[in-house]
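Sample entry (490 residues):
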Amino acid sequence: MREIAWTNKWRQGRPATGLALGFALLTTAGCMVGPNFKTPEVITPSAWVGPTTMPATAPSASAEELLARWWTVFNDPTLSSLVDRAIQSNLDVRLAESRIRQARAARGVSAAAIGPTVNAAGSYRRSQASSGGSSRTPPVADQYQAGFDAGWELDFFGGARRGVEAANADIQAALEDRHGVLVTLAAEVARNYTDLRAFQQRAAIARRNLAAQQHSADLTRQRYEGGFVSGLDLANANALVASTAGQIPLLEASAQQTIYTLSILLGQPPGALLEELSPVADIPAAPPQVPTGVPSELLRRRPDIRQAEAQIHAATARIGVATADLFPKFTLTGAIGYQSGQISSWFNPASQSWSFGPSATWQIFDSGRIKSNIKVQNALEEQSILNYQKAVLTALQEVENALISSASEQEHRKALMDAVVANRIAVDLSTKLYTEGQTDFLNVLNAQRSLYSSEDSLAQSDSTVTTNLIALYKALGGGWESDAGPNHSH
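Predicted structure, serialized as tokens:
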């Protein structure tokens, strides 16, 4: 546009130029072919089928904040630190941020199609013509040439603007992709951290039971040496000790491997967190009250649904890009330059040349290429709508699964707590009766085996209760906020 204005400055009083500029401004604000994007309508249930722990109402502002940083409800500083560090350094997050930058750069490419282009060129040539057989040597000639040319394809039917619209939707999809990565990342860090503490607790339970079983084995050995029990009792006692001892290395190895996984999630070498996380700690526990809200709230909260919606928008806009090829294209072109055989006469009016004028092209026959491309874009839009519908159904299913799993595991845990209490009583009674010679060692053996099994199962259930809550927070789309972290969206 600056080139056109410059040409007008050199040729004052040419009304055609002003009219052309006015025409350009008029046409760039013209119609846009193709369908306009509309958010797809989906039917969501009015309430959850599974049991909820809070009223089924739309989340309040405080509930939204809780969902954004749900891991803080566990009141575990180590867990909160791990999640925050993962958000800053995880490689998947950095990849998602790179895709955002790529989408924004691609938007710049699309936006450039709306504006004019200006090219500058210059050349110098020294030449001598052929003598044609004459004995006279032709003179040597110099030629200096330089100039500017400009072109502006007027977006009369909105194809370029639809391209920018699609690019804007691609940026939104990339942003939601990053949000989805954050949701998954927070859940993965919390789940692995919970698994780590569960392995550590199970190893501690195994050591505690091993000590009790070793005490019983020592007592049995003394009674065997005194001739009060058979060798079978001693063999069974030693077998139980060996079986329990064999579990400890496996649990310790699983704990260390989980630390490796957490290190990778934080973008660090596998052993980077060993010193920090090796000390034994409790399994993180949180109150089961989760702000589930209403099912329709998922449409605005879940990043994968928001991403699918943005992808529909992009696909719809690209139908307009393809449709614009059915219509003629109008272009304004202009050029100004100088050509001279001598530097001294470079800026003489006689050395100047210029041109300006509109042009139009219209592809009348292309063997159906444009219409086929429109059909392709329509099919892509249809696929994106189906993906959106699938994302909504999947989200509803994940929440319902998490609700029922969380509720059932709470009941399972209560039963296991009762079993642990009963088994501890059984161990105490059977040991006492055995030392008094009122029962055989098989009862002690069974009681100790049952106690270890129930305590181990209770530790696993504690872990499952927590991981089910984590799964519910993830299914609800918790773990991101629009302004999470400095420059994360840039």
